C-alpha cells in the first residue's frame, strides 16, 4: 500500500521533493521543540547554527520519530530497497545563518585519476514503475519559514536530473558569490509551517536563504538509504588503506564562494 | 592515467567483465597458495567449498594484494568514485562444488511493500566517458580452469544491462533446475590459468559450472565499491530498528533450484 | 561554436525550454505581422484560432526565418543530429481560445497490442556532454503575453523527464477538467514580449491558458528534428499497409477534458 | 498477445538480435527464391553483391511477406510504437563479397558543429516492461550459411548498448583492417539455415564475413520503425534548405578500412 498518491509521486519524481503540509500536529511540534531544549547541541561549524547530532541515540522521542510511518511510508515509496536509517539530526539556526547550495545530479568530483560527474550516493534511477533514490531525507520543520528572510529552503528546479554541472563551470567563469545571493532563473523557494514534512531527494541542488529575521529556525532531519549504505559521516576522500567509510562531497558552493562573503554579511 | 586501454574498457562495458591473463606470475601464485595453506578456512555453507574470510586481516600478503596496482588500477577505471575495499576472501573448491547463477541487472527483490527490479548495490551507469559500477570484484585465479568440468566461471551474456528479469519468470514457468545444468542460449564459459585476473561487474549474472575433475579450484577475491558502501556482509532484509547494515540478495538460482538437485548430482 | 551558453544549456536541460528575450527586433516583428496579414489562414479546428500552414512555402520571409541563425543555433545545440525542418506554421488566436496540455515524457499511448509509455518522437537523451532532443520547436512571439488572461504559455515543471504518466491516471480518477483550469502544484506560466524566442523540447507537457483579453495572440512556430523524421503531419495510427507516415498523439488533455467544458466557457 | 516469449525477449534485449529458426518452410523459401529470379536487381555498389530494391513494390509476394505475422509479431514486440515499413530489399551475394561492421550504440558522427556519439535513428530505450527500438530489421535467409567461409552474419557482443565508441578510436590508433579480418575478442558469428528469421536491433554493430565458398548467399530484409520515420534512403548529411530527409551514417568500418584491402582480397 503506497503512502504517496500517484500525483505526489509524480511531483516528487519531477521536482525532486515533496512537501506534506501539517504532517505533525501542534502538540507534536511542541514536544519535539521541548525535547531539543533538553539536548546539548554541538557546534555545527556553520555560523549561528547549532547541530544536534545522532538524535535517535540522544532521545527516545526522536528514535521513535525516525520509525514513524509518516516518514517511513513516503521514504519507502521512493527508495524501494531494504531500508536503513543513515542519520538523524537537528539544526537550530539563528540570524545570518545560511546553507549554500549543494547536491545536483551532475556536479563534479575530483578523484586522483581525474574528475567525474557522478556522486553515486545520490544517483537515482527508475525502473518498471518505481523510483530508486539511494539517499533521501525527511525534514520535520519546527518553525514557520514563510519568507526568504526567514531562511527558506531553496533549490534549483530540475537539478536532481541535471545532465550538466552548474557550480564549477560558473566558478571557472569567475563567479564567486552564492547563487542564493546572486540569483538564478530557476532558483525557487519553499515556504513551510511548523509541522510540515519535506521529503527530499538528496540529488536536488538545494540550500537555504540567509536568515535575516530574529528567532530560531528549527528542524529535525533523518536520512535514509538502502541497507548497504554506511551511516552518514563526512569523509574527505578515500583512505590509504581503503578501509575508510563515509560520504564525500562533489562540488558545493562552499568550495567556490568566498570573495563576496565579507561584503554580503557585514 | 587509466590502467585499462580503450578496447579493454569497451570490453568491460559491453560484456560486464574483463580477463587480464597472466597478471600474476608463477612465484606469486605459489606464494598465495602457500599463504592460504597456512590459514584456516571456514565452512562456506556450500558443498565441498571452503571459504577464507577476511583475508586482508588474516595475512599481510593478502592485505598488500588488496592494494596492488594490478587490481586497483582496473577497479578505479570502472568504479570512478572514492574507493574502499568491501571484502577480501578466498575460495577452495573440490569436486561436485557448484555456484549457481546470481546477479543480473533486473532480477527481482521482494520488499514488504512489493517487488522491485533493481538492486541498487549493483546498479551501474555511465556519464561523460566514465563508467560508475558500485560493486566490482577482482578474482585472482590460483588454479587452471580450462574446461566446464573444472568448474569454469560462466555468465549470461549482456545480463549486466538486462532490462528484464530472467530467473523468477523462469521459476514461475516451473523450471527448477539451474541454467548451469539446463543450459541457456547465451550462457557462456570463461577458461583461465593460474595468475589470471578477472575484473567483474557484480551486475553480471554469473556462477560456476559443477566441478567434476579432481584437485582443487582456488582463488582469492576482493570486492570494491565507493566509500559510502558498508563492508560486505549478508543481511536477510532490513532490521526492525532500521540500523542493520548489509547486502541483500535479489533472486538467485539458489532460491528456485531444488527438485532437480538430487537427480543431477547422484 | 555553441549558440547557447553553459547556463542556457543547463536551463534548457533542467526545465525543457529556454526563453531568449528580444531575439527579434520591433521592425522584424512588424514585418512578420504584416506578412501574416497577407496570408490566408486555415481553420485550425480550435475555437477562435486561425492556423497559417506551411509558412516556408507561403512566404519568402518565413522560409528565411526558418533558416535564421537565431533559431538554428540554439536548435542545433539541443538536437545534435543532422537537421531538418519538420514544419513551420503560424497561430493567430482570439478571446476564449485555449490549448490544452500535451506532451510529457511518460504519457500513455494505446497500440493494438497494449499500452505504452513512450512516444519515441519526443524521447530525448544525453550522452557525453550533448543533448539529443528529436523534436524541438522554436516559437517567435509576435504579441505581448504578460498575464494568464493573455493566454500565457504554461507547462508542468520537469514533465519532459517524467517517469510517470499524469493525464490518464488523473482521468481514471474521474477528473475531467483541464489542469489549466483546475491547477496543479507545478503548473507554471511564462510571460513573453513580442520578439521573444522560445526554444521548446516537445517532451515538456505544455499548453496555454484561456485567453480572456481582447486583441490577438500571434506567433510563428518551427519544428525541427533529425533528417530521418518525416514532415510533421497528424496520423491517427498506423495504416493497414504500414506505409502511412506521421505523428501520433499519446494522451493529451483533449482526450479527457469535456464535461467541464460547457460550465467553464459559458 | 506478445509474439515473443519472455526468454526470447530477454535474449533480444541482452544480445541485440534473435534468431527464429525455421520460421519459413522449404516451399516458402523456394517461392521467394523463384520470385527473386524474376526480378532484376540493381548494382549494390558492393563487390559481388546484387541488391533488389523496393521488394514490396516489385512483387506481391514480398509485399505480403512484409506484413506477415511471423515478421510483424516480433517486430511489434520490440518497437512498441505505431509501425511503418521503412524499406524492403533483397541481397544476393557471391564469392569475395563482404559487409563491413556498422551500427553500434556510441559510434561517432561528425556534424558541422562537432562530433556526437548518438545516432538517434537507432537509439533505443526501455520503459515499464517494454523495449523501444526505433529501427529494427527482419532478415529472411534463403541460403544456408553454416561457416565463416559462407559469409556468416557477425556482430560485436553487447555493442547495441555500448557506452563507448569502438571504430574511430581504433582507426586513430592506426588500425586500417576490418575487425572482420583482424578479429576482436567479442566478434561472434551466427550460422543460419534457409528459412530462418533474424530479428535485428540496428544498434548492434554487425556485418558479414568474407564469403569464400561458391554459390549464392541470398536473403530478403525488411526495415521497420515508428510512423514518424521516413522511408529509408541514404542521405550524406543535412541539406542547405533543411528539407532533405534520409538516414546518415555514423562511423562505419568502410570509412576507415582501406590500406589492407588490396592485400586481403587479391
Overview of the molecule:
4 copies of one chain form a homotetramer. The model of chain A has no long low-confidence stretch (mean pLDDT 95). Chain A has a single domain (6-261), classed as q2cbj1_9rhob like domain (Jelly Rolls). With 266 residues, chain A is α+β, with helices and mostly antiparallel strands. In chain A, 23% of the residues lie in helices and 26% in strands. Chain A has 8 helices and 15 strands. The longest helix of chain A is centred in the N-terminal third of the chain and has 13 residues, at 26-38. Chains in contact: A-B, A-C, B-D, C-D.
Task: List the defining traits of the structure above.
globular; 7-stranded antiparallel β-sheet; alpha+beta; Jelly Rolls; 266 residues; homotetramer; 8 helices; 4-stranded antiparallel β-sheet
Q: How many angstroms does the end-to-end distance of chain A come to?
A: 52 Å
CATH topology of chain A: Jelly Rolls
Largest interface: A-B, 48 and 49 residues
Instruction: Please state the structural category of chain A.
Output: alpha+beta
CATH class of chain A: Mainly Beta
- Share in helix of chain A: 10-25%
**Order of helices and strands of chain A, N to C?**
HEHEEHHHEEEEEEEEHHEEEEH
Uncertain segments of chain A of ≥5 residues (pLDDT<50)? none
Describe how the helices and strands are arranged.
Four copies of one chain form a homotetramer.
Chain A: H1 6-15, E1 17-20, H2 26-38, E2 42-43, E3 49-52, H3 55-58, H4 60-66, H5 69-79, E4 83-93, E5 99-102, E6 109-111, E7 114-116, E8 125-127, E9 130-132, E10 136-141, E11 153-156, H6 167-172, H7 179-182, E12 187-190, E13 197-201, E14 206-208, E15 217-226, H8 259-264
